[in-house]
């Protein structure tokens, strides 16, 4: 039996951390992402006894909101636009840390990697999300979409 | 007296978050300088006096643990307090870092009050030792 957090744990931790760290309030959603959506994507490895990859994908406008909230600046500013991809990476990093503690508890050795950042279509993320065993998809109070999922490393 | 602080993180957003927390803290901070990895941090430390280093662990080129190990080897850097701010929370890693001489460990996400408490305590101790 894998030590990886269940889908329910993943959803709960993501929802709580988004609210706590970035003041983004989101609810679980079944709505699919489409090609019309452009997503900032951050991928982080989590290595303990098992090796997993965490993927956090957020619509570009939500990337701006994350940057604005993390830095205390207007999300419509140029600075927020410039920082949006990195803000998604930082959010993925924080989420990976919380999930790593969930994998093995505070006593267990677990290492997290450096986030890699890409810009992908919603359809590509939706396909990866559909194939993932542990996943959660959200809609924020502003109507933006984000998805978070865990895949065994080397399979995504 | 105002103090110089060095923030070391490969993420510009993370550096700005730490900078903002330090600036909001009300501490007597003068210059805040930034480095994107451990190697850049060592260059900054060699170039000018720094009172406290706030560093991430996971960085390219030279990570936070390697940076601390290099600081220990250099007499003029060895006593500079280092606070690690990281999303990694494994107890064995925190204990190993403290055994290396790291002054404090703050998990991400941190609250600005935690920065004030930890950095303020280190600066007060430094002021006390110098007076």
Task: Describe this protein's structure.
Helices cover 42% and strands 29% of the residues of chain A. Chain A contains four helices and seven strands. In chain A, strands 1, 2, 3, 4, 5, 6 and 7 form a seven-stranded antiparallel β-sheet that branches. The model of chain A has no long low-confidence stretch (mean pLDDT 91). Chain B is α/β, with parallel strands linked by helices and 131 residues long. Helix content of chain B is 50%, strand content 20%. Chain B is built from six helices and five strands; from the N terminus they run E-H-E-H-E-H-H-E-H-E-H. Chain B has helices at 12-24, 38-47, 64-73, 75-78, 91-100, 112-130; strands at 3-8, 29-35, 52-55, 82-86, 104-107. In chain B, strands 2-1-3-4-5 form a five-stranded parallel β-sheet, sandwiched between helices. In chain B, strand 4, helix 5 and strand 5 (104-107) form a beta-alpha-beta unit.
């Amino acid at each position: 039996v894998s030590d990886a957090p269940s889908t329910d744990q993943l959803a709960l931790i993501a929802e709580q951390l988004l609210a706590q760290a970035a003041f983004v309030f989101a609810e679980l959603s079944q709505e699919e992402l489409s090609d019309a959506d452009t997503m900032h994507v951050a991928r982080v490895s989590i290595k303990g006894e098992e090796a997993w990859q965490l993927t956090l994908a957020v619509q570009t406008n939500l990337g701006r909101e994350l940057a604005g909230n993390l830095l205390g600046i207007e999300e419509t500013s140029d600075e927020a636009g410039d920082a949006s991809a990195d803000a998604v990476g930082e959010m993925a990093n924080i989420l990976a840390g919380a999930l790593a503690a969930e994998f093995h508890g505070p006593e267990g050795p677990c290492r997290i990697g450096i986030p890699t950042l890409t810009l992908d279509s919603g359809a590509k993320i939706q396909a990866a999300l559909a194939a993932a065993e542990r996943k959660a998809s959200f809609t924020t109070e502003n109507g933006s979409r984000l998805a978070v999922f865990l895949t065994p490393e080397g399979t995504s | 007296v105002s103090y110089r602080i060095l923030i070391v993180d490969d993420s510009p957003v993370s550096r700005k978050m730490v900078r903002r927390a330090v600036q909001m803290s009300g501490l007597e901070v003068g210059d805040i300088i930034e480095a994107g990895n451990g190697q850049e941090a060592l260059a900054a430390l060699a170039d000018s006096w720094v009172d406290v280093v706030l560093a991430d662990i996971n960085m390219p080129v030279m990570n936070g643990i390697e940076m601390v190990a290099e600081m220990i080897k250099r007499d003029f850097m060895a006593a500079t307090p280092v606070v690690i701010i990281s999303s990694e929370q494994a107890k064995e890693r925190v204990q190993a870092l403290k055994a290396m001489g790291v002054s404090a460990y703050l998990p991400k996400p941190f609250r600005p009050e935690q920065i004030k408490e930890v950095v303020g305590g280190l600066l007060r101790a430094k002021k006390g030792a110098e007076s």
